[in-house]
Amino acid sequence: MERNAIDEVALEHESLRRHMSNLLSICDALGTRSNCTGCPRDRVCRCIDATNTATEELFTFMVNHFGREERLMKDAGLVYRFHDECELHMQDHGDMSEAMLKVLVKIPDADPVVHLRHLSSCLSSWLDQHICSHDNTLLHQLQNA
Ligand SMILES: [Fe+2]
Ligand SMILES: [Fe+2]
Predict the structure, then answer these.
(1) What is the mean pLDDT of residues 71-95?
(2) CA 124 to CA 78: how far, in whole Å?
(3) In this structure, what CATH number is given to the domain that contains residue 60?
(4) Ion ligand 1 neighbours, Cβ < 5 Å
(5) Ligand 2 centroid – CA 84 distance (Å)
(6) Rounded distance from Cα 45 to ligand 2 centre (Å)
């Protein structure tokens, strides 16, 4: 498999982590607050806008990234050689996209801190687990394809 394609997937993982940490840095009191009570209203409005934009960007990036990985699996014939592993990998992409969509439809009116804490608790660990298991296996298979 072409080296560039493998490097690009690895680079996209770095970008995914960067998108995630940008999103979580919107509120500098995320670790100590459980909601936006006490923050000035104009500040909360800016946080809502920033949170919506960053969540949409993260979602778009994730969906494009999943698509790239799935095309690579197909182009390299991995979906035949490692059928069950690829199926589980694609299923995890689907589950995550669905979970993100559910979050996206709720955010316009959501308290940004509640939203960010929710994303932080479910998405950060998912991202690490997915990359450490499914994606690292995929990169290894592509290197040997
Ligand atoms: Fe993946
Ligand atoms: Fe990935």
Answers:
(1) 96
(2) 27
(3) 1.20.120.50
(4) 69, 134-135
(5) 17
(6) 32
